[in-house]
Amino acid sequence: MEEDIKVLPENHKAGFVNIVGNPNVGKSTLMNDLVGERVSIITSKAQTTRHRIIGIVNTPEYQIVFSDTPGVLKPKYKLQESMLGFSEGALTDADILLYVTDVVEDPEKNKEFLDKVAKEEVPVLLVINKIDLLKNDAELQELVDRWHARLPKAEIFPTSATENFNVANLKNRIIELLPVSPPFFGKDALTDKPARFFVTEIIREKLLLNYEKEIPYSSEVIVEKFEDKEGSIHIMSVIYVERDTQKGIIIGKGGDKIKKVGIEARQDIERFFGKRVYLEIFVKVEKDWRNRENKLKAFGYLE
């Protein structure tokens, strides 16, 4: 690392760019667009992101450390308290703050959190996402005016993350605002998360896509074994649920549902790592884990 820093340009830039906002406004899609890699899982369901996930962009001239956070919400159980803690923590260590909203969200939703954003001393870039859903420029101007009144110090960037519209301009502005600094991570780093974390996220994404109602939100995925060999990876994972009935639903009749999850997850994991993957998935019951501090610590939500 020290050898790398010696050859860096004198005006090398680096900084933490933290992405915050309410659930389901497109934070994870934007994060992946900005990083250029799929580091956050994306579904149409709220509360997809549970952890604070870092994605790193490196060039010889700069390092941007993007941080995707869970959507801001009023906690109903201890897991959601931890998720809110990740979002509020992102306000304290940012060099640049990206507040993401969309074209249908009420600006006063989660007012207390927005009030904290308004008091930020660091640059705030307000991203109005999903503008492809608007009918005309007049609707967009009305939104821009409303948000400018709410966050007068923020620079406003209308975007469509799914269409990749205006994302390049947003990224260029981020680069301009980065402070001069040596890198915080190795220049070949993509994230601070270990490989097995992305396995759990991919499996959890398949739970969100394949099951309805409470099942995905009552589930947690742990990788118990990750053997990375030259030509293949052997993974043993466990899906934890809160009730026996949920276990039965996840497994499905004759194991058909869990088999589908396994096939879809394995295909994505193979694409992610570029290797053949042998994936085993088991389902276990851990009653009321979302409200048990010892389990939240074991699952990485509490220190």
List keywords for this structure.
three-stranded mixed beta sheet; 22% strand; disordered N terminus; alpha/beta; 9 strands; 10 helices; single chain; 303 residues; six-stranded mixed beta sheet; globular; 35% helix
Overall description:
It is built from ten helices and nine strands. The chain has a six-stranded mixed β-sheet with strand order 2-3-1-4-5-6, with helices on both faces. A three-stranded mixed β-sheet has the order 7-8-9. It has 303 residues and is α/β, with parallel strands linked by helices. It is globular. The N terminus is likely disordered. Helix 7 packs across helix 9. It is 35% helix and 22% strand.
Number of DSSP-assigned strands:
9
Side by side, the strands of the main sheet go 2-3-1-4-5-6
> Helix content range of the residues, please?
25-40%
Class of secondary structure makeup = alpha/beta
Mean pLDDT: 85
* Shape label: globular
